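Encode chain A's predicted structure.
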Amino acid sequence: MNKGFFRLAAGTALVIALSASSAFAQKKYDPGASDSEIKIGQTVPFSGPASAYATIGRAQAAYINMINDQGGINGRKIKLIQYDDAYSPPKAVEQVRKLVENDEVLLTFQIIGTPSNAAVQKYLNAKKVPQLFAATGASKFTDPKNFPWTMGYNPNYFVEGRIYGQYILKEHPNAKVGVLYQNDDLGKDYLNGIKAGLGDKAATMIVAEASYEVSDPTIDSQILKIRSAGADLLFSAATPKQAAQAIKKVYELGWRPVHIVDINATSVGAVMQPAGLEAAKGVISVNYGKDPLDPTWKDDPGMKKYFDFMAKYYPEGDKNSNFNVYGYSTTELLVHVLQMCGDNLTRENVMKQASSLKDVTGDLALPGIKANTSPTDYRVNKQLQMMRFNGERWELFGPILEDTGAAG
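Encoded structure for chain A:
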């Protein structure tokens, strides 16, 4: 009798264990995910004043084509739906609503630009749809307490600005600083960041501030205002078009300030060449990724993978553009997160995995730079290295800088 009882108990335990294992392995899907497909969406400024960023979206689509050719993510193909928002907030709202309500995407990925992301943030959080790796570094996009469904990708603009302020104090302690900034969250975060980096000296060192609207045809008057104030160091918190205009105008005036540009304005093809390579010589910024023009990386395995990708999947794109490097790296991280999700393709799990990154190193990250996130710190990139444009390409200098302090 005892033997029968134990056999029955063992059999029952086996059934319970199998059913628990089956429950654990059960696939979970939210809208946009199925056994065969993962549907994601984004808006990109394919037209409008920030259309220089359009190549980012094209590189991302090409990367996803490569992943699908390799079998997809855990056997599922990614369907990327892209709409043009022309860098217009009202258009972004319209297109993102379409992605969520008509296309029923699992998540939005890399919506490009601070204005567009700001316009849809509350809507996506109300709908509990991931605003994943938003292409902006404004502080409001790494605020998990108030916006748990939003995670920015770019280095925090306030923190980046603070790094420039600290650099100025160390290398140019007697500088008279002029700040050109875009009149939105991007520009204001940079302005507040550089003031934080300068600390008590900000009030005396900053001699001029001049803002511009994205729709302004030129920024000539702002540059003239800053020069007239006696500035000998210019910080341009600008997007590519206006950054190129600033570099060109400064050169035309025969004015030679120390010139720092933010990380968004470091493309050789979209900024330095339109401004004039000679005019751009000596401009300073930061980076966290490898530059395809830098011979340091010519034998680097990650760079070789990138060049092979560009040759096969985006041959019409500029392989030397850091915008395409950015498109590659952001999509590489998206694929990592989706792989981590396994068969639990719910919106909640997407955010859980994205906020649990541990020492993730991409193919094109600078040596020593790793992505780490937590449920209370959504900042993906917190490490940067200074660089200077030599008239042909960027040259890195100094150590890896890490700023994990408050983000604005």
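The mean pLDDT is 93.
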